[in-house]
Protein backbone atom coordinates (compact mmCIF):
# COMPACT_ATOMS: atom_id res chain seq x y z
CA UNK A 1 0.00 0.00 0.00
CA UNK A 2 1.35 3.42 -1.02
CA UNK A 3 0.66 6.18 1.50
CA UNK A 4 1.33 9.89 0.92
CA UNK A 5 1.14 12.83 3.30
CA UNK A 6 0.44 16.22 1.70
CA UNK A 7 1.33 19.45 3.50
CA UNK A 8 0.57 23.13 2.94
CA UNK A 9 1.85 25.89 5.23
CA UNK A 10 3.87 29.09 5.66
CA UNK A 11 1.82 31.12 3.15
CA UNK A 12 -1.90 31.01 3.93
CA UNK A 13 -3.88 28.11 5.44
CA UNK A 14 -1.75 25.35 6.89
CA UNK A 15 -3.24 21.91 6.29
CA UNK A 16 -2.44 18.23 6.00
CA UNK A 17 -3.98 15.44 3.94
CA UNK A 18 -3.42 11.68 3.89
CA UNK A 19 -4.02 9.65 0.74
CA UNK A 20 -3.58 5.86 0.57
CA UNK A 21 -3.82 3.82 -2.62
CA UNK A 22 -5.40 6.77 -4.39
CA UNK A 23 -8.17 7.18 -1.78
CA UNK A 24 -8.55 10.20 0.48
CA UNK A 25 -8.25 9.07 4.10
CA UNK A 26 -8.30 12.37 5.99
CA UNK A 27 -7.65 16.08 5.62
CA UNK A 28 -7.83 19.04 8.00
CA UNK A 29 -6.70 22.64 8.43
CA UNK A 30 -4.34 23.57 11.23
CA UNK A 31 -6.61 26.45 12.31
CA UNK A 32 -9.21 24.01 13.64
CA UNK A 33 -6.75 22.71 16.24
CA UNK A 34 -4.88 25.89 17.20
CA UNK A 35 -8.06 28.05 17.06
CA UNK A 36 -6.10 30.68 15.12
CA UNK A 37 -8.05 31.54 11.98
CA UNK A 38 -6.16 30.84 8.73
CA UNK A 39 -3.20 29.61 10.75
CA UNK A 40 -0.30 29.37 8.24
CA UNK A 41 2.14 27.61 10.58
CA UNK A 42 3.57 24.13 10.12
CA UNK A 43 0.44 21.94 10.54
CA UNK A 44 1.73 19.58 13.21
CA UNK A 45 -1.69 19.11 14.80
CA UNK A 46 -3.35 18.42 11.46
CA UNK A 47 -0.56 15.99 10.54
CA UNK A 48 -0.94 14.08 13.79
CA UNK A 49 -4.69 13.88 13.24
CA UNK A 50 -4.53 12.54 9.66
CA UNK A 51 -1.87 9.98 10.60
CA UNK A 52 -3.99 8.83 13.55
CA UNK A 53 -7.10 8.63 11.37
CA UNK A 54 -5.19 6.43 8.93
CA UNK A 55 -3.54 4.39 11.70
CA UNK A 56 -0.20 5.28 10.09
CA UNK A 57 3.09 6.20 11.76
CA UNK A 58 5.49 8.63 10.06
CA UNK A 59 7.88 5.75 9.38
CA UNK A 60 5.16 3.98 7.36
CA UNK A 61 4.76 6.88 4.94
CA UNK A 62 6.07 6.26 1.45
CA UNK A 63 6.21 9.94 0.50
CA UNK A 64 5.66 13.38 1.97
CA UNK A 65 4.91 16.21 -0.46
CA UNK A 66 4.76 19.99 -0.13
CA UNK A 67 2.23 21.90 -2.25
CA UNK A 68 4.59 24.56 -3.61
CA UNK A 69 8.14 24.95 -4.93
CA UNK A 70 9.72 27.41 -2.48
CA UNK A 71 12.85 28.03 -4.56
CA UNK A 72 10.72 29.21 -7.48
CA UNK A 73 8.72 31.46 -5.17
CA UNK A 74 11.94 32.85 -3.72
CA UNK A 75 13.16 33.47 -7.26
CA UNK A 76 10.01 35.52 -7.90
CA UNK A 77 10.50 37.54 -4.74
CA UNK A 78 14.15 38.33 -5.47
CA UNK A 79 13.48 39.34 -9.07
CA UNK A 80 10.43 41.40 -8.08
CA UNK A 81 12.35 43.29 -5.40
CA UNK A 82 15.31 43.87 -7.73
CA UNK A 83 12.96 45.22 -10.41
CA UNK A 84 11.68 47.96 -8.07
CA UNK A 85 14.86 48.60 -6.02
CA UNK A 86 15.45 50.61 -3.94
CA UNK A 87 11.70 50.60 -3.41
CA UNK A 88 10.25 47.66 -1.49
CA UNK A 89 13.05 47.55 1.08
CA UNK A 90 10.63 47.38 4.01
CA UNK A 91 8.71 44.50 2.44
CA UNK A 92 11.99 42.69 1.68
CA UNK A 93 13.25 43.08 5.25
CA UNK A 94 9.91 41.79 6.56
CA UNK A 95 9.87 38.72 4.31
CA UNK A 96 13.52 37.61 4.47
CA UNK A 97 13.68 36.27 8.07
CA UNK A 98 10.71 33.96 7.45
CA UNK A 99 12.32 32.63 4.29
CA UNK A 100 15.62 31.89 6.02
CA UNK A 101 14.02 30.28 9.08
CA UNK A 102 11.14 28.41 7.43
CA UNK A 103 10.43 28.36 3.73
CA UNK A 104 13.91 27.37 2.54
CA UNK A 105 14.18 24.63 5.20
CA UNK A 106 11.02 22.67 4.49
CA UNK A 107 12.59 19.19 4.03
CA UNK A 108 14.58 19.64 7.23
CA UNK A 109 11.52 20.87 9.15
CA UNK A 110 9.38 17.95 7.93
CA UNK A 111 11.98 15.30 8.76
CA UNK A 112 12.85 16.76 12.16
CA UNK A 113 9.22 17.33 13.17
CA UNK A 114 7.98 13.89 12.15
CA UNK A 115 11.03 11.69 12.59
CA UNK A 116 10.51 10.82 8.92
CA UNK A 117 13.41 9.62 6.77
CA UNK A 118 11.82 9.09 3.35
CA UNK A 119 11.65 11.35 0.31
CA UNK A 120 10.22 14.88 0.57
CA UNK A 121 8.75 15.95 -2.77
CA UNK A 122 7.45 19.26 -4.11
CA UNK A 123 4.68 19.96 -6.60
CA UNK A 124 4.17 23.23 -8.47
CA UNK A 125 1.52 25.28 -6.71
CA UNK A 126 -1.00 25.31 -9.55
CA UNK A 127 -0.44 21.64 -10.31
CA UNK A 128 -1.46 20.94 -6.71
CA UNK A 129 -4.61 23.03 -7.23
CA UNK A 130 -5.34 21.27 -10.54
CA UNK A 131 -4.84 17.82 -8.99
CA UNK A 132 -7.13 18.73 -6.08
CA UNK A 133 -9.83 19.68 -8.58
CA UNK A 134 -9.57 16.80 -11.04
CA UNK A 135 -8.63 13.64 -9.14
CA UNK A 136 -11.56 13.72 -6.64
CA UNK A 137 -14.00 14.76 -9.38
CA UNK A 138 -16.53 12.34 -10.93
CA UNK A 139 -15.04 12.81 -14.41
CA UNK A 140 -12.86 10.42 -16.41
CA UNK A 141 -11.55 13.47 -18.27
CA UNK A 142 -12.06 17.20 -17.93
CA UNK A 143 -10.65 20.65 -18.56
CA UNK A 144 -9.13 22.30 -15.49
CA UNK A 145 -8.92 25.98 -14.54
CA UNK A 146 -7.05 27.23 -11.47
CA UNK A 147 -7.11 30.89 -10.39
CA UNK A 148 -5.66 32.45 -7.24
CA UNK A 149 -3.43 35.29 -6.05
CA UNK A 150 -0.05 33.79 -6.90
CA UNK A 151 1.83 30.51 -6.50
CA UNK A 152 5.51 30.63 -7.48
CA UNK A 153 5.13 32.70 -10.69
CA UNK A 154 1.70 31.45 -11.76
CA UNK A 155 -1.53 33.32 -10.96
CA UNK A 156 -3.86 31.19 -13.10
CA UNK A 157 -3.56 28.12 -15.28
CA UNK A 158 -5.55 25.76 -17.44
CA UNK A 159 -4.96 22.19 -18.38
CA UNK A 160 -6.43 18.74 -18.91
CA UNK A 161 -7.15 15.86 -16.57
CA UNK A 162 -7.36 12.40 -18.14
CA UNK A 163 -7.36 9.22 -16.07
CA UNK A 164 -4.24 9.36 -13.90
CA UNK A 165 -2.72 12.37 -15.63
CA UNK A 166 -3.01 16.11 -15.08
CA UNK A 167 -1.27 18.35 -17.59
CA UNK A 168 -0.94 22.13 -17.27
CA UNK A 169 -1.13 23.65 -20.75
CA UNK A 170 -0.72 27.36 -20.06
CA UNK A 171 -0.24 29.76 -17.17
CA UNK A 172 -0.82 33.43 -16.41
CA UNK A 173 2.11 34.96 -14.50
CA UNK A 174 2.72 37.43 -11.70
CA UNK A 175 2.20 40.35 -11.30
CA UNK A 176 -0.90 40.03 -13.49
CA UNK A 177 -3.44 38.31 -11.26
CA UNK A 178 -7.22 38.22 -11.01
CA UNK A 179 -6.93 37.02 -7.42
CA UNK A 180 -4.66 39.90 -6.37
CA UNK A 181 -6.94 42.35 -8.16
CA UNK A 182 -9.97 41.10 -6.19
CA UNK A 183 -7.93 41.19 -2.97
CA UNK A 184 -6.91 44.79 -3.68
CA UNK A 185 -10.58 45.78 -3.73
CA UNK A 186 -11.19 43.67 -0.61
CA UNK A 187 -8.46 45.66 1.15
CA UNK A 188 -9.69 49.02 -0.18
CA UNK A 189 -13.24 48.30 1.01
CA UNK A 190 -11.95 47.71 4.54
CA UNK A 191 -11.97 43.92 4.73
CA UNK A 192 -9.08 41.60 5.51
CA UNK A 193 -7.12 40.20 2.56
CA UNK A 194 -7.24 36.40 2.21
CA UNK A 195 -10.29 36.11 4.44
CA UNK A 196 -12.64 38.99 3.60
CA UNK A 197 -13.10 38.34 -0.11
CA UNK A 198 -16.37 36.50 0.53
CA UNK A 199 -17.63 39.58 2.38
CA UNK A 200 -16.97 41.65 -0.72
CA UNK A 201 -18.87 39.08 -2.79
CA UNK A 202 -21.78 39.24 -0.32
CA UNK A 203 -21.80 43.04 -0.43
CA UNK A 204 -21.84 43.24 -4.24
CA UNK A 205 -25.61 42.72 -4.78
CA UNK A 206 -26.37 45.86 -2.76
CA UNK A 207 -24.39 48.02 -5.18
CA UNK A 208 -24.26 48.86 -8.87
CA UNK A 209 -21.20 48.30 -11.11
CA UNK A 210 -20.64 52.04 -11.52
CA UNK A 211 -16.86 51.69 -11.49
CA UNK A 212 -16.58 48.82 -13.98
CA UNK A 213 -15.62 51.06 -16.88
CA UNK A 214 -13.00 52.85 -14.76
CA UNK A 215 -11.50 49.52 -13.72
CA UNK A 216 -11.23 48.43 -17.35
CA UNK A 217 -9.93 51.74 -18.62
CA UNK A 218 -7.40 52.45 -15.91
CA UNK A 219 -6.22 49.53 -13.79
CA UNK A 220 -6.98 46.17 -15.40
CA UNK A 221 -7.53 44.84 -18.90
CA UNK A 222 -9.31 41.54 -19.48
CA UNK A 223 -8.41 39.82 -22.72
CA UNK A 224 -10.58 37.53 -24.83
CA UNK A 225 -9.01 34.46 -23.21
CA UNK A 226 -9.84 35.73 -19.70
CA UNK A 227 -6.27 36.67 -18.77
CA UNK A 228 -5.82 40.04 -17.10
CA UNK A 229 -3.14 42.72 -17.30
CA UNK A 230 -2.71 45.07 -14.33
CA UNK A 231 -1.42 48.64 -14.40
CA UNK A 232 0.95 48.34 -11.45
CA UNK A 233 1.02 52.05 -10.65
CA UNK A 234 -2.35 51.56 -8.92
CA UNK A 235 -1.16 48.75 -6.64
CA UNK A 236 1.16 48.49 -3.67
CA UNK A 237 1.84 44.77 -3.32
CA UNK A 238 5.23 45.02 -5.04
CA UNK A 239 6.90 47.84 -3.13
CA UNK A 240 5.00 48.30 0.13
CA UNK A 241 3.03 46.29 2.69
CA UNK A 242 -0.30 47.48 1.25
CA UNK A 243 -2.44 46.28 -1.62
CA UNK A 244 -3.23 49.65 -3.20
CA UNK A 245 -1.32 52.84 -3.99
CA UNK A 246 -2.22 56.56 -3.62
CA UNK A 247 -3.20 56.55 -7.33
CA UNK A 248 -5.84 53.91 -6.53
CA UNK A 249 -7.22 56.11 -3.76
CA UNK A 250 -7.38 59.12 -6.06
CA UNK A 251 -9.13 57.09 -8.75
CA UNK A 252 -11.88 55.93 -6.38
CA UNK A 253 -12.58 59.07 -4.41
CA UNK A 254 -10.32 59.03 -1.40
CA UNK A 255 -8.67 56.72 1.16
CA UNK A 256 -9.75 53.14 1.76
CA UNK A 257 -12.56 52.45 4.17
CA UNK A 258 -11.13 51.77 7.61
CA UNK A 259 -12.05 48.36 9.07
CA UNK A 260 -15.16 48.37 11.28
CA UNK A 261 -16.25 51.79 10.03
CA UNK A 262 -19.58 52.39 8.29
CA UNK A 263 -20.01 50.84 4.86
CA UNK A 264 -21.03 53.47 2.30
CA UNK A 265 -22.50 53.40 -1.20
CA UNK A 266 -18.96 53.66 -2.56
CA UNK A 267 -17.98 50.29 -1.08
CA UNK A 268 -21.19 48.68 -2.33
CA UNK A 269 -20.62 49.96 -5.86
CA UNK A 270 -16.93 49.01 -5.79
CA UNK A 271 -17.89 45.49 -4.69
CA UNK A 272 -20.46 45.23 -7.48
CA UNK A 273 -17.93 46.51 -10.02
CA UNK A 274 -15.06 44.16 -9.20
CA UNK A 275 -17.50 41.25 -8.93
CA UNK A 276 -18.78 42.03 -12.44
CA UNK A 277 -15.19 42.23 -13.72
CA UNK A 278 -14.35 38.87 -12.10
CA UNK A 279 -17.39 37.15 -13.57
CA UNK A 280 -16.53 38.49 -17.02
CA UNK A 281 -12.93 37.28 -16.74
CA UNK A 282 -13.93 33.83 -15.46
CA UNK A 283 -16.51 33.40 -18.20
CA UNK A 284 -13.99 34.36 -20.86
CA UNK A 285 -11.53 31.88 -19.37
CA UNK A 286 -14.16 29.15 -19.48
CA UNK A 287 -15.01 29.74 -23.15
CA UNK A 288 -11.34 29.95 -24.13
CA UNK A 289 -10.41 26.77 -22.25
CA UNK A 290 -13.33 24.85 -23.73
CA UNK A 291 -12.25 25.88 -27.23
CA UNK A 292 -8.65 24.87 -26.51
CA UNK A 293 -9.41 21.51 -24.84
CA UNK A 294 -12.71 20.51 -26.45
CA UNK A 295 -13.82 18.95 -23.15
CA UNK A 296 -17.42 18.74 -21.89
CA UNK A 297 -16.56 18.93 -18.18
CA UNK A 298 -14.67 21.52 -16.14
CA UNK A 299 -12.87 21.30 -12.79
CA UNK A 300 -12.03 24.43 -10.79
CA UNK A 301 -9.67 25.21 -7.90
CA UNK A 302 -7.62 28.07 -6.48
CA UNK A 303 -8.90 30.75 -4.13
CA UNK A 304 -10.92 32.51 -6.84
CA UNK A 305 -12.89 29.27 -7.35
CA UNK A 306 -14.51 30.03 -3.98
CA UNK A 307 -16.32 32.88 -5.72
CA UNK A 308 -19.57 30.95 -5.95
CA UNK A 309 -21.36 33.74 -7.83
CA UNK A 310 -18.83 33.48 -10.67
CA UNK A 311 -19.12 29.68 -10.51
CA UNK A 312 -22.87 29.96 -10.95
CA UNK A 313 -22.36 32.18 -14.00
CA UNK A 314 -19.99 29.62 -15.54
CA UNK A 315 -22.56 26.88 -14.97
CA UNK A 316 -25.50 28.86 -16.37
CA UNK A 317 -23.84 30.86 -19.14
CA UNK A 318 -20.64 28.95 -19.86
CA UNK A 319 -19.86 26.27 -22.45
CA UNK A 320 -19.40 23.23 -20.17
CA UNK A 321 -21.92 20.48 -19.57
CA UNK A 322 -20.85 19.89 -15.96
CA UNK A 323 -18.49 21.57 -13.52
CA UNK A 324 -16.91 20.30 -10.29
CA UNK A 325 -15.19 22.60 -7.79
CA UNK A 326 -12.77 21.51 -5.07
CA UNK A 327 -14.48 22.38 -1.73
CA UNK A 328 -11.13 23.35 -0.20
CA UNK A 329 -10.23 25.39 -3.26
CA UNK A 330 -7.67 27.60 -1.52
CA UNK A 331 -4.25 26.78 -0.16
CA UNK A 332 -5.54 24.17 2.30
CA UNK A 333 -6.73 22.10 -0.64
CA UNK A 334 -3.23 22.29 -2.06
CA UNK A 335 -2.12 19.76 0.56
CA UNK A 336 -4.70 17.31 -0.76
CA UNK A 337 -3.89 18.06 -4.40
CA UNK A 338 -0.17 17.58 -3.84
CA UNK A 339 -0.77 14.19 -2.20
CA UNK A 340 -3.06 13.07 -5.02
CA UNK A 341 -0.59 14.27 -7.66
CA UNK A 342 2.15 12.15 -6.09
CA UNK A 343 -0.10 9.10 -5.73
CA UNK A 344 -1.02 9.08 -9.42
CA UNK A 345 2.01 10.74 -10.99
CA UNK A 346 4.87 9.42 -8.84
CA UNK A 347 3.56 6.11 -7.50
CA UNK A 348 1.54 5.43 -10.71
CA UNK A 349 -1.55 4.16 -8.93
CA UNK A 350 -4.79 3.48 -10.77
CA UNK A 351 -7.55 6.06 -10.37
CA UNK A 352 -11.05 4.84 -9.61
CA UNK A 353 -14.01 6.88 -10.81
CA UNK A 354 -17.56 6.18 -9.58
CA UNK A 355 -20.36 6.94 -12.00
CA UNK A 356 -21.67 10.38 -11.06
CA UNK A 357 -20.07 10.37 -7.60
CA UNK A 358 -16.98 12.30 -6.55
CA UNK A 359 -14.26 10.94 -4.26
CA UNK A 360 -14.35 13.87 -1.82
CA UNK A 361 -16.71 11.97 0.54
CA UNK A 362 -18.83 15.07 1.12
CA UNK A 363 -15.60 16.75 2.34
CA UNK A 364 -16.27 15.13 5.73
CA UNK A 365 -12.58 14.36 6.17
CA UNK A 366 -11.82 15.73 9.65
CA UNK A 367 -12.01 14.44 13.22
CA UNK A 368 -15.09 12.82 14.74
CA UNK A 369 -15.91 12.08 18.36
CA UNK A 370 -17.72 9.06 19.76
CA UNK A 371 -20.79 9.30 21.93
CA UNK A 372 -18.70 7.98 24.79
CA UNK A 373 -16.16 10.77 24.39
CA UNK A 374 -18.89 13.40 24.23
CA UNK A 375 -20.72 12.08 27.30
CA UNK A 376 -17.48 11.94 29.27
CA UNK A 377 -16.84 15.59 28.39
CA UNK A 378 -20.36 16.62 29.46
CA UNK A 379 -20.27 14.62 32.70
CA UNK A 380 -16.79 15.80 33.66
CA UNK A 381 -17.86 19.43 33.33
CA UNK A 382 -21.28 18.98 34.89
CA UNK A 383 -23.19 20.24 31.85
CA UNK A 384 -26.89 19.21 31.91
CA UNK A 385 -27.89 17.12 28.90
CA UNK A 386 -30.41 14.65 27.56
CA UNK A 387 -29.41 11.52 25.65
CA UNK A 388 -31.53 11.17 22.51
CA UNK A 389 -32.46 7.72 21.19
CA UNK A 390 -31.39 7.35 17.57
CA UNK A 391 -34.97 7.43 16.33
CA UNK A 392 -35.63 10.79 18.04
CA UNK A 393 -32.51 12.72 17.02
CA UNK A 394 -33.56 14.16 13.68
CA UNK A 395 -37.11 14.99 14.74
CA UNK A 396 -35.91 16.70 17.95
CA UNK A 397 -33.64 19.01 15.96
CA UNK A 398 -36.31 19.58 13.30
CA UNK A 399 -38.98 20.44 15.88
CA UNK A 400 -36.72 23.01 17.54
CA UNK A 401 -36.07 24.61 14.13
CA UNK A 402 -39.76 24.56 13.26
CA UNK A 403 -40.46 26.34 16.56
CA UNK A 404 -38.13 29.14 15.47
CA UNK A 405 -35.11 28.23 17.59
CA UNK A 406 -31.44 28.26 16.57
CA UNK A 407 -29.55 24.99 16.98
CA UNK A 408 -25.84 24.27 17.09
CA UNK A 409 -25.35 21.00 15.21
CA UNK A 410 -22.26 18.83 15.83
CA UNK A 411 -22.29 15.44 14.15
CA UNK A 412 -19.79 13.10 12.50
CA UNK A 413 -16.51 14.07 10.85
CA UNK A 414 -15.57 17.73 10.58
CA UNK A 415 -15.62 19.36 7.15
CA UNK A 416 -12.43 20.05 5.17
CA UNK A 417 -12.54 23.49 3.58
CA UNK A 418 -14.08 26.83 4.55
CA UNK A 419 -17.75 25.75 4.45
CA UNK A 420 -19.80 24.05 7.16
CA UNK A 421 -21.81 21.35 5.45
CA UNK A 422 -23.98 19.94 8.22
CA UNK A 423 -21.32 18.50 10.47
CA UNK A 424 -20.20 21.64 12.33
CA UNK A 425 -23.15 23.92 11.57
CA UNK A 426 -25.53 26.41 13.15
CA UNK A 427 -29.06 25.80 11.87
CA UNK A 428 -32.16 27.99 11.70
CA UNK A 429 -35.63 28.31 10.16
CA UNK A 430 -35.38 29.67 6.61
CA UNK A 431 -38.98 30.98 6.77
CA UNK A 432 -38.26 33.54 9.52
CA UNK A 433 -37.71 36.97 7.99
CA UNK A 434 -35.78 38.17 11.07
CA UNK A 435 -33.47 35.13 11.12
CA UNK A 436 -30.70 36.71 9.02
CA UNK A 437 -30.47 39.76 11.27
CA UNK A 438 -30.77 37.69 14.47
CA UNK A 439 -28.08 35.17 13.53
CA UNK A 440 -25.68 37.82 12.22
CA UNK A 441 -25.92 40.16 15.19
CA UNK A 442 -26.71 37.86 18.14
CA UNK A 443 -24.85 34.68 17.24
CA UNK A 444 -22.19 35.29 14.60
CA UNK A 445 -21.36 38.87 15.76
CA UNK A 446 -20.77 40.00 12.18
CA UNK A 447 -22.03 42.48 9.61
CA UNK A 448 -25.81 42.45 9.20
CA UNK A 449 -25.67 42.35 5.38
CA UNK A 450 -23.93 38.97 5.26
CA UNK A 451 -26.20 36.35 3.64
CA UNK A 452 -26.82 32.82 4.90
CA UNK A 453 -26.84 29.66 2.84
CA UNK A 454 -29.79 27.34 2.39
CA UNK A 455 -29.42 23.62 2.99
CA UNK A 456 -32.06 21.89 0.87
CA UNK A 457 -32.94 18.26 0.26
CA UNK A 458 -31.09 17.26 -2.90
CA UNK A 459 -34.24 15.82 -4.42
CA UNK A 460 -36.18 19.06 -3.81
CA UNK A 461 -33.67 21.69 -4.97
CA UNK A 462 -35.55 22.53 -8.18
CA UNK A 463 -38.68 23.26 -6.16
CA UNK A 464 -36.95 26.26 -4.60
CA UNK A 465 -34.10 27.37 -6.85
CA UNK A 466 -33.27 27.71 -10.53
CA UNK A 467 -30.88 24.79 -10.30
CA UNK A 468 -31.30 21.34 -11.84
CA UNK A 469 -28.36 19.52 -10.26
CA UNK A 470 -26.65 18.92 -6.95
CA UNK A 471 -24.50 21.54 -5.20
CA UNK A 472 -23.16 19.65 -2.18
CA UNK A 473 -20.33 22.02 -1.28
CA UNK A 474 -22.05 25.44 -1.23
CA UNK A 475 -20.03 26.57 -4.24
CA UNK A 476 -22.81 27.56 -6.63
CA UNK A 477 -25.11 30.55 -6.46
CA UNK A 478 -28.46 30.34 -8.24
CA UNK A 479 -31.65 32.42 -8.19
CA UNK A 480 -34.58 31.60 -5.94
CA UNK A 481 -37.56 30.53 -8.07
CA UNK A 482 -39.39 33.61 -9.27
CA UNK A 483 -42.69 32.19 -8.04
CA UNK A 484 -41.33 32.27 -4.48
CA UNK A 485 -39.99 35.83 -4.61
CA UNK A 486 -41.65 38.93 -3.21
CA UNK A 487 -41.09 42.53 -4.37
CA UNK A 488 -38.81 44.77 -2.32
CA UNK A 489 -37.61 48.35 -2.58
CA UNK A 490 -35.40 48.55 -5.63
CA UNK A 491 -32.63 50.77 -4.31
CA UNK A 492 -30.33 51.42 -1.37
CA UNK A 493 -30.57 54.77 0.41
CA UNK A 494 -27.89 57.30 -0.45
CA UNK A 495 -26.50 57.11 3.09
CA UNK A 496 -25.80 53.41 2.49
CA UNK A 497 -28.00 52.18 5.35
CA UNK A 498 -28.37 48.40 5.01
CA UNK A 499 -30.59 47.60 8.00
CA UNK A 500 -33.79 48.38 6.10
CA UNK A 501 -32.91 46.28 3.03
CA UNK A 502 -31.66 43.37 5.14
CA UNK A 503 -34.92 43.25 7.10
CA UNK A 504 -37.16 43.22 4.01
CA UNK A 505 -38.89 39.94 3.26
CA UNK A 506 -37.78 38.93 -0.23
CA UNK A 507 -39.29 35.45 -0.64
CA UNK A 508 -41.07 32.70 1.27
CA UNK A 509 -37.60 31.55 2.42
CA UNK A 510 -36.38 35.05 3.37
CA UNK A 511 -33.55 34.00 5.71
CA UNK A 512 -31.61 32.51 2.78
CA UNK A 513 -32.64 34.88 -0.02
CA UNK A 514 -30.06 37.56 -0.78
CA UNK A 515 -30.90 41.13 -1.85
CA UNK A 516 -30.71 40.13 -5.54
CA UNK A 517 -32.92 37.03 -4.97
CA UNK A 518 -29.93 34.69 -5.15
CA UNK A 519 -28.79 31.96 -2.77
CA UNK A 520 -25.55 30.04 -2.16
CA UNK A 521 -26.98 26.54 -2.22
CA UNK A 522 -26.07 23.35 -0.42
CA UNK A 523 -27.94 20.28 -1.57
CA UNK A 524 -28.03 17.53 1.06
CA UNK A 525 -27.84 13.90 0.00
CA UNK A 526 -29.17 11.00 2.03
CA UNK A 527 -26.19 8.95 0.90
CA UNK A 528 -23.54 11.45 1.97
CA UNK A 529 -25.00 12.78 5.24
CA UNK A 530 -28.02 10.68 6.28
CA UNK A 531 -28.65 12.40 9.64
CA UNK A 532 -28.55 15.94 8.25
CA UNK A 533 -30.80 14.83 5.38
CA UNK A 534 -33.22 13.33 7.88
CA UNK A 535 -33.30 16.57 9.90
CA UNK A 536 -34.36 18.54 6.82
CA UNK A 537 -36.85 15.86 5.77
CA UNK A 538 -38.45 15.97 9.22
CA UNK A 539 -38.48 19.77 9.08
CA UNK A 540 -40.36 19.55 5.79
CA UNK A 541 -42.90 17.16 7.37
CA UNK A 542 -43.48 19.67 10.16
CA UNK A 543 -43.53 22.87 8.09
CA UNK A 544 -43.98 21.99 4.42
CA UNK A 545 -40.58 23.58 3.71
CA UNK A 546 -37.51 21.52 2.65
CA UNK A 547 -35.00 24.34 3.23
CA UNK A 548 -33.19 25.37 6.43
CA UNK A 549 -30.49 27.93 7.22
CA UNK A 550 -26.99 26.47 7.46
CA UNK A 551 -24.05 28.58 8.62
CA UNK A 552 -20.70 27.63 10.07
CA UNK A 553 -20.48 26.78 13.76
CA UNK A 554 -18.28 29.67 14.88
CA UNK A 555 -18.37 33.38 15.52
CA UNK A 556 -16.65 36.06 13.52
CA UNK A 557 -12.88 35.85 13.77
CA UNK A 558 -12.88 32.27 15.03
CA UNK A 559 -12.35 29.06 13.03
CA UNK A 560 -15.17 26.54 12.70
CA UNK A 561 -15.43 24.41 15.84
CA UNK A 562 -13.56 21.11 15.87
CA UNK A 563 -14.10 19.47 19.26
CA UNK A 564 -17.04 19.13 21.66
CA UNK A 565 -15.23 21.66 23.88
CA UNK A 566 -15.13 24.17 21.01
CA UNK A 567 -18.81 23.59 20.27
CA UNK A 568 -19.92 24.02 23.87
CA UNK A 569 -17.86 27.18 24.28
CA UNK A 570 -19.49 28.76 21.21
CA UNK A 571 -22.95 27.56 22.31
CA UNK A 572 -22.63 28.88 25.85
CA UNK A 573 -21.35 32.32 24.89
CA UNK A 574 -23.80 33.12 22.09
CA UNK A 575 -27.57 33.13 21.81
CA UNK A 576 -27.73 29.66 20.26
CA UNK A 577 -30.69 28.11 22.08
CA UNK A 578 -30.04 24.38 21.69
CA UNK A 579 -27.00 22.22 21.01
CA UNK A 580 -27.08 18.84 19.33
CA UNK A 581 -23.80 17.19 20.29
CA UNK A 582 -23.32 13.75 18.75
CA UNK A 583 -26.54 12.23 20.12
CA UNK A 584 -26.93 14.50 23.15
CA UNK A 585 -29.33 17.43 23.48
CA UNK A 586 -28.48 20.54 25.49
CA UNK A 587 -30.92 23.31 26.37
CA UNK A 588 -29.36 26.74 26.95
CA UNK A 589 -31.82 27.49 29.79
CA UNK A 590 -30.45 24.54 31.77
CA UNK A 591 -26.76 25.39 31.41
CA UNK A 592 -24.54 27.16 33.96
CA UNK A 593 -24.38 30.91 33.46
CA UNK A 594 -21.35 32.31 31.65
CA UNK A 595 -19.60 35.32 33.17
CA UNK A 596 -16.98 35.73 30.46
CA UNK A 597 -18.15 39.18 29.38
CA UNK A 598 -15.03 39.81 27.28
CA UNK A 599 -15.77 36.97 24.90
CA UNK A 600 -17.86 38.97 22.43
CA UNK A 601 -15.20 41.65 22.24
CA UNK A 602 -12.49 39.03 21.79
CA UNK A 603 -14.11 37.66 18.65
CA UNK A 604 -15.56 40.89 17.29
CA UNK A 605 -12.48 41.61 15.17
CA UNK A 606 -11.18 39.87 12.08
How do you describe this structure in short?
This protein is α/β, with parallel strands linked by helices and 606 residues long.
The helicity comes to 25-40%
CATH class of the largest domain: Alpha Beta
CATH superfamily membership of the largest domain, which one? Carbamoyltransferase, C-terminal domain
- Largest sheet at a glance? 9 strands, mixed
CATH domain topology of the largest domain: DHBP synthase
The N- and C-terminal alpha carbons lie at a distance of 43 Å
Overall structural class, as computed from helix and strand content, comes to alpha/beta
| Overall CATH architecture of the largest domain | Alpha-Beta Complex
Question: What count of domains describes the coordinates?
Answer: 3
Tertiary shape: globular
Query: How confident overall, as mean pLDDT?
Result: 93
Topology:
Elements lengths: L2 E6 L6 E6 L2 E7 L1 H4 L9 H10 L9 E4 L3 H15 L4 H15 L2 H9 L5 E3 L2 H10 L6 E11 L2 E9 L2 E9 L4 H11 L8 H7 L8 H8 E3 L5 E3 L15 H6 L13 H29 L3 E5 L6 H10 L4 E4 L5 H15 L25 H11 L4 E2 L2 H13 L4 E4 L13 E6 L5 H10 L8 E5 L18 E4 L19 H5 L14 E7 L5 H14 L3 E6 L11 H9 L5 E4 L2 E4 L11 H4 L4
Parallel strand pairs: 1-4, 4-5, 6-11, 11-12, 14-20, 16-18
Antiparallel strand pairs: 1-2, 2-3, 6-7, 7-8, 9-10, 13-21, 14-15, 15-19, 16-19, 17-18, 20-21
Helix pairs in contact: 3-4, 6-13, 7-11, 11-12, 15-18
What does this structure look like?
The structure is a single chain. The chain is of the alpha/beta class. It folds into three domains: 1-134 and 329-358, ATPase, nucleotide binding domain (Nucleotidyltransferase, domain 5), CATH 3.30.420.40; 137-325, ATPase, nucleotide binding domain (Nucleotidyltransferase, domain 5), CATH 3.30.420; 371-602, DHBP synthase (Alpha-Beta Complex). Helices cover 35% and strands 18% of the residues. The protein contains 20 helices and 21 strands. The strands form four sheets. A nine-stranded mixed sheet has the order 13-21-20-14-15-19-16-18-17, with helices on both faces. The protein has a five-stranded mixed sheet with strand order 3-2-1-4-5. Strand 11 (297-301), helix 12 and strand 12 (322-325) form a beta-alpha-beta unit. The radius of gyration is 23 Å and the shape is globular. The model is unreliable at 597-606 (pLDDT under 50).
